[in-house]
TrEMBL record:
Protein's name in the database: Saccharopine dehydrogenase
Length: 337
């Protein structure tokens, strides 16, 4: 299915939005895109480089986003924090699919309520997961090796120099201010933990152990409900990545540990790292691009009106293929880790 109207990318000149636009262009050469940013000249340069794209500035304080009345879009992507939810309202008023990545678990209530009140208006993809759902989809791809899953532990290392641009850093500061507690699923119960219970050791792909803690992230309920696992935890550490320790750029690394049983009922556990030499930016962009594909029906049927999460729309096997295509890799843990 090809679109005659453009995908409006709010924050399209930022790292996540710009890279997502580049991926969409690579996958769908004729898909119209509208790059929205505060700096119109920069947006125009990006649009010209992409081709089949236009540039605009928007005002997120306005319900009409400051766009002309005759502007037409096929979807709205908030690749930045839509703090007044005017991007969502704009999409709902026009029956357009909407995708957001910056609300976080502790901030999604206004977004979910607004979406639920107008559930028939348009599909809303809440993708405020780690790297816009890329980690969840990778974990679900690995989970297909098990017949029953009892425990999922995700351990992520974010390089201190790889927190993104100003919008990404603002997101991290906002989330840390909202709560220092972590959300886990323990024996089937979603539980808030803090203090020593939230502390964790996160082992990097090269065996280095970093101090970390459990965090409140949408990946936990997404993985719990998608797999039925009664025990789910997401631990997070900010520090020096394995890439920088060996003198290379900051790298991305997420460890996926699964415990459960094989089809015969015998205990089975797996561990692997999802890594990328260029840090978190390519994976966040991929998460956005995968979501846009499904919202618009560029791959499979277009999403129906209502609230969606990445794992509800995107096939994990396909997501893994795309991860490998952009330079990510799955590697086994070191023996001593």
């Amino acid at each position: 299915m090809e679109q005659s109207q453009s995908v409006l990318i709010l924050g399209g000149t930022g790292q996540a939005g710009g890279d997502a636009a580049a991926l969409l262009r690579r996958w769908h050469p004729t898909l119209p895109l509208t790059i929205a940013g505060r700096d119109l000249d920069r947006a125009r340069r990006m649009a010209d480089a992409l081709g089949a794209a236009t540039a605009v500035t928007v005002d997120l304080r306005r319900g009409d986003l400051g766009l002309p009345g005759d502007h037409r879009s096929s979807a709205v992507v908030a690749a930045l924090w839509d703090d007044r939810l005017n991007g969502l309202r704009y999409a709902q008023d026009r029956g357009l699919p909407y995708l957001s990545i910056s609300s976080g678990l502790v901030e999604i209530a206004p977004e979910v309520v607004a979406s639920a009140q107008r559930a028939d208006a348009a599909p809303v993809l809440v993708a405020s997961h780690y790297c816009a759902g890329a980690a969840v989809l990778a974990a679900l791809g690995a989970a297909r090796e098990l017949d029953r899953i009892d425990t999922i532990r995700i351990s992520a290392v974010l390089d201190a120099s790889d927190t993104g641009g100003p919008a990404g850093r603002a997101d991290l500061e906002r989330w840390s201010t909202a709560t220092s507690a972590g959300l886990v699923r323990r024996d089937g119960v979603f539980t808030w933990i803090d203090g020593s219970a939230a502390q964790a050791e996160v082992t990097s792909v090269d065996g280095t152990v970093l101090p970390g803690q459990s965090i409140a992230v949408l990946d936990v309920p997404s993985l719990a409900h998608a797999t039925g696992a009664p025990n789910v935890r997401f631990d997070f550490a900010v520090g020096e990545s394995a890439g920088r320790r060996r003198g290379a750029p900051a790298s991305f690394e997420v460890r996926i540990d699964l415990e459960g049983a094989d089809p015969a009922g015998a205990p089975l556990s797996t561990s692997r790292y999802l890594v990328h030499p260029a840090g978190q930016r390519p994976l966040t962009a991929l998460g956005i691009a995968l979501g846009v594909e499904r919202l618009l029906g560029l791959r499979g049927e277009a999403a129906r009106p209502g609230i969606h999460t990445p794992e509800a729309l995107v096939d994990p096997t396909y997501a893994v293929e795309r991860l490998l295509e952009i330079g990510a890799a799955f590697v086994n843990p070191r023996v001593n880790s």
